[in-house]
Amino acid sequence: MAELSRRSFLNAPCSRLIDFKESYYMKKYCAILILLIILVPGACCGNALTIQPFRSEQVDRLMEEAISGGLIAGGVVLVGTAKGIVFEKPYGRVAADPLSRPITLDTVFDIASLTKVVATAPAILKLAEERRISLVDPVKKWLPEFSQRDDLLIWHLLTHTSGLDDFTLSAANPMPSALAGAAAQKPKGVVGNRFRYADINFILLGEIVSRAGALPLDQFAAANIFAPSDMRDTCFNPGKERAERCAPTAVGEHAVLPGEVQDSLARQLGGVAGHAGVFSTAGDLGRFCMMILNRGEGRGGNGPFAPNH
């Protein structure tokens, strides 16, 4: 079954994106393209992207209406291209309380499921680029708890086509219960045939990063993704200094937790999880996007997927 899944995957239209028999450059370029499609959908469809003159007054109006209408307390808007930042401006406050502090360009936000995009997915691709894993490895190769699942590949977790559903974790042993619970699930439909978004896919990927990369996910991402991308304020579990700059997250009706992740599963897992837990600034996310648009290279030719890295 595993070999059949590999053949089916490699015969798919996008198979050349991850065929590790291809050249080093092609592997590097296409690994980035997987994320680039998310950022710039038109770039993979043969359509020329037209950059219209940027009109900041429209952004000002939209943000002011959203704040005055009570939709949001505030935020930071950043617009850029592969060449640099076009517009960056803070709006409003960190909370609805009119006495709360104003949002600034260095306000740190809980970026929730963007953790999947800026930490876990690129960490998996980094390990694949270094040939420490393959995207078509059976999950059981790295997670023995899945010893009875020959059909499940890393690629299926990455693309939410595993057929797995989310479930409640044990408070006492959250990660062991995540592994055991996912391994015991009967997949919904044929694995690989249906997109079914579930956090458990990236919780498992985060554990694969830890095992294959020989570092906890937060340390691996910090060393191999955030630092090379010049993302200086991006991390799991912000320390005291960053926590003082964090926009507070809310749990329930009254609890306000500056610097603590809002996602309940991520909190159970100690604030470090493949699906949620990263904190970042608009500027850092802008640098990440520019790195993606520049095919893995950041400022000065550096970057997690740059040829010299």
Helix content: 25-40%
Task: Report the total helices.
Answer: 11
Please state the overall shape, judged from the principal axes of the Cα atoms: globular
Compute the CA-based radius of gyration: 20 Å
CATH architecture term of the domain at 1-17 and 106-282: 3-Layer(aba) Sandwich
The CATH topology of the domain at 1-17 and 106-282 turns out to be: Beta-lactamase
| Counted beta strands | 7
Q: Note the run of SSEs as H and E.
A: HHHEEEHHHHHEHEEHEH
Query: Quick one: biggest sheet?
Result: 3 strands, antiparallel
How is this structure best described in words?
By secondary structure, the protein is of the alpha+beta class. It has a domain of 194 residues: DD-peptidase/beta-lactamase superfamily (Beta-lactamase), CATH 3.40.710. 38% of the residues lie in helices and 10% in strands. It has eleven helices and seven strands. The strands form three sheets. A three-stranded antiparallel beta sheet has the order 3-7-4. The chain has a two-stranded antiparallel sheet with strand order 1-2. The chain has a two-stranded antiparallel sheet with strand order 5-6. Helix 4 crosses helix 8. The radius of gyration is 20 Å and the shape is globular. The N terminus is likely disordered.
